[in-house]
Amino acid sequence: MRGILLCLLFTGLSQAAEVYLNPSPSLPSYLTPSHASSVISRHLRLEAFEPLQGNEQIATKFLNEPFVGEGDKNGLLLSIDEADAKDVLPESLKPTFSLSNSPDITSFSSLISTYLHRAPQAYTHIFSLPSYSAPVPRLLDIFSVSSSATESFLTEISGLVSFLESDDDGLASDKFGAFELTGLGEIASAYGRSSEQYTLAAETLRAVLLGALDKKDINLVVLTFNGARANAPSRRQPPQSPLPPTIPQQPINSVSTCYTSESECGNATSACSGRGSCVSATKAGKTCFVCACAATKDEKGRTENWAGQACERKDVSGPFVLLAGTVVALLLLVVGSVGLLYGIGNQELPSVLTGGVTGGQKKD
Q1: Which of 312, 323, 324, 268 lies closest to 124, judged by CA?
Q2: Is the pTM of this model over 0.90?
Q3: Which residue windows are transmembrane per the record (predicted)?
Q4: I need a labelling partner for 45 at 20 to 30 A (CA). Which of 38, 77, 131, 355 fits?
């Protein structure tokens, strides 16, 4: 039963959907939704939920791939509109397989949520977009005019760069990230694909994806979909019957365990490890109790944030926002400088300036 949900979700995605895996195993060019979900789960080290079954040829070829067994790797799952993918995916990243045709049901948000729900069983550190509208630091505000589309894009870039740059904080392994990249499509809808805003955003996302491909410790999965079949708001709605309901958007540290009473929550988590309190929450339509982690101060007076179902580990995602902003800002500064120099390179200097460079007369 554990693999039924993903199989149904992939069935909903399979109309003209392409899947990119890096490193790329040798697989048939077309896979059924059930085989595709098993292969992707295996690639992301989540095969315990959905082992390769039903096709011994695919299972054997996949298990014999050189990158399988090279040691634990990090997992990164991305979804993006195929129209945007053409502008941002590096040429070196080729489609691994396509999904065979079936009725079109838009289920990408549910798919991302499903993998985020399973990831804590295999990974310690989980990265994704916040479930609330987080403010974007001014350093990341690269657009001259702010809008909901640009803010959405910057939030996605900030989260993705935080995942990639977390190696500097000792998280070189055992981390998982899943991101639904819709911000670029929103910019295209708001400003057009020939606009300066879209060009700038596409170049930025392309540079970030190139950085992801350069990291050999990441198993990358990119899912592309036909955004013309449904607009962005409809993609975020739960699919209709007969598919099961989607996993609700919740904080990452509360999806693993939800306790029936406040006392049970406190006993099971040692009062949230002394770093928070048990609060009521709604999960799958039922009210239960989870840990709401609070910030603490260390011996030097620095603020520490905590995460996990028992507030047992430090929340390391926040400190990367400044680093992410620095990386993106420097990249865009270089691109903007080159564009500025190119734009003024062919213009003649004013006569006031050129008159000052004529040969002078020597006086005795």
Answers
A1: 312
A2: no
A3: 320-344
A4: 131
